[in-house]
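job 3f2a | input accepted
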Amino acid sequence: MNNNIGFLFDLDGVLIDSESEYSKIWAQVNKEYPSGIPSLEVIIKGCTLDKILDDHYPDMEIRSKVIARLYELEKLMKYNYLPGAEKLLKSIKNSPYKMALVTSSNDVKMAHLDEELPELRGMFDFIVTADLITKSKPDPEGYLLGAAKIDKEKKNCIVFEDSLQGVKAGQNSGAYVVGIAGTLSADVLAPYADIVIQSLNEISLDELINIVRNRNEQ
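job 3f2a | predicted structure (218 res):
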């Protein structure tokens, strides 16, 4: 069995049902500490916290208040798997293939995730967080690091993303990109993804393996 294929997963909106909650949180933060951007919660999807703050909250005093409020609201969040996510992760975990999590979340957010879904971290061979990169999506740095950490060539990797910044990052990395519609419509994701599906229930491990093999034979 050819096990040179690697799987690179985004977190929010791909594996866990959190994007709608984050939209509410950032809308609330933007209301309390106006950034001047009417739909800030939409524009920032897929970006690291550092990039969000650099782009929209340059004042250091306001920035510290935004961070404190964000973490306060995040602690109230509950995380649940999206349809098909847990099943696919377990299938890969029980196979010879390796996978990495590539998320714009920082270590503070990940600590809360560990409390809610303690088994999730152990599913992955490596986790790339915002604290390990210097460039936010759509830059491919996170996905290139993830591929390197699981020792797979980028052309043999499959990226799973739901945000516009994310699918662009996947495309820029040279990997095969699976867009997950939901956070955004399929029409928005399609120009930057090789395929777009509604949920991970729609695709199996065997289908994914065949996709990469067929792609590399072309």
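job 3f2a | The beta strands are 6-9, 98-102, 126-128, 157-161, 176-180, 195-197.
job 3f2a | closed
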